[in-house]
Specification:
Radius of gyration: 19 Å
Shape: elongated
Number of strands: 8
Helix content: 10-25%
Number of helices: 2
Strand content: 35-45%
Structural class: alpha+beta
Largest sheet: 5 strands, antiparallel
Number of domains: 1
Distance between the termini: 47 Å
């Protein structure tokens, strides 16, 4: 099921990720970075609900699967983009390490830079916009 106006889909990414929820886990919609922090709090965004939720097509998400034993948890992080209602693209994976978030920064920066802009004028160069304003007599 999808909503064509907002380009969102209802899905459960766990159907498409090779991850575990044996000891828990979470998914976050990644919207930016705060490099003043050196841990998971450096990755900005909202946490998603467990199970099926509304995901933005083209949106960037981070999954944390927690496996291992009950005493020795092992976390696995997967950065992915939702491509369609039944497809995701895995962009990066990292294991359980103290600097796991910092290791994801380059992939997050690249993915956020490649997201389509919300502004419909973003597809035009500054020169094209200035030329159009001059043509309309606004300058």
């Amino acid at each position: 099921m999808s909503d064509a106006q907002t380009n969102t889909v209802v899905m459960d990414p766990l159907d498409y990720l090779d991850t575990t929820r044996y000891n828990g886990g979470w998914i976050k919609h990644v919207t930016g970075l705060d490099k003043t922090k050196r841990n998971g709090y450096s990755i900005l965004g909202q946490f998603m609900r467990h199970g099926k939720d509304l995901y933005i097509v083209g949106g960037l998400y981070l999954d944390c699967g927690i496996g291992g034993s009950r005493r020795r948890h092992r976390k696995h992080y997967t950065l992915f983009r939702v491509v369609a209602a039944d497809k995701i693209e895995i962009l990066a994976t990292v294991g359980d390490a103290p600097d796991w978030a910092i290791n994801l920064w380059p992939a997050i920066e690249e993915a956020l830079a490649s997201e389509p802009a919300d502004n419909p004028l973003a597809v035009f160069t500054t020169e094209e916009l200035m030329a159009e304003l001059k043509r309309r007599g606004a300058l």
